[in-house]
Amino acid sequence: MENKIKNSKVEDEELEEEMMMEKFYSTLRNFRDARDRRRKQLDELEKNDKKKRKMKIAKQETTKTSSSWVPSFEREDFTTELELPFIFPTPCDRTGVSKKETHKDVSLDLKLAL
Fold first, then answer.
1. Confidence (pLDDT) at 17
2. What domain of life does the native source organism fall in (predicted)?
3. What's the pTM value of the predicted model, to 2 decimals?
4. Maximum distance among all alpha carbons in the chain?
5. Residue 79's pLDDT is what?
6. End-to-end alpha-carbon separation of the chain, Å?
7. Nearest Cα residue to 58 out of 68, 69, 50
8. What pLDDT is recorded for position 35?
9. Which of 3, 8, 35, 76 has the CA that lies 20 to 30 A from 27?
10. Does any domain span residue 53?
């Protein structure tokens, strides 16, 4: 009787070990499958990204070549006299104004206010 009990315990342990090994190998297979799927996704994304970059570069090249307006100047552009609507005042025109007031009017206030 003892022999049968020992045999059944040994068989149970062997079955348990086999089940654990199967579970381990199935986990490994699942991990490899997930890794392979992720690699494929990344490869597809990279291919799409390369295509987008190529299309963007091609689009930029076509826009560069398609610009038809080139600025040009002719001698007549610089020979005409300009008439300004006002005359710039000279600093010596200010009589009766102190130097401090003149300096305030002309200079910019560069003080930082916090």
1. 94
2. Eukaryota
3. 0.40
4. 132
5. 73
6. 97
7. 50
8. 96
9. 8
10. yes
**Domain membership flag for residue 43:** yes
For residue 74 the two structure tokens come to 């002719």
Number of domains in the chain: 1
Q: Which residues contact 91 (CB under 8 A, 6 or more apart)?
A: 102, 106
pLDDT digits (tens, 9 = 90+) for 78-94: 776 666 665 666 666 55
* Stretch (H or E) spanning 59: helix 2-66
57 in Cβ contact with 65 (< 8 Å): no
**What distance in Å separates the CA atoms of residue 24 and residue 107, rounded to the nearest whole number?**
82
Query: What's the pLDDT tens digit per position in 9-23?
Result: 888 889 999 999 999
| Dist. CA 38–CA 32, nearest whole Å | 10
In terms of residue numbers, what domain contains 53?
Answer: 1-65
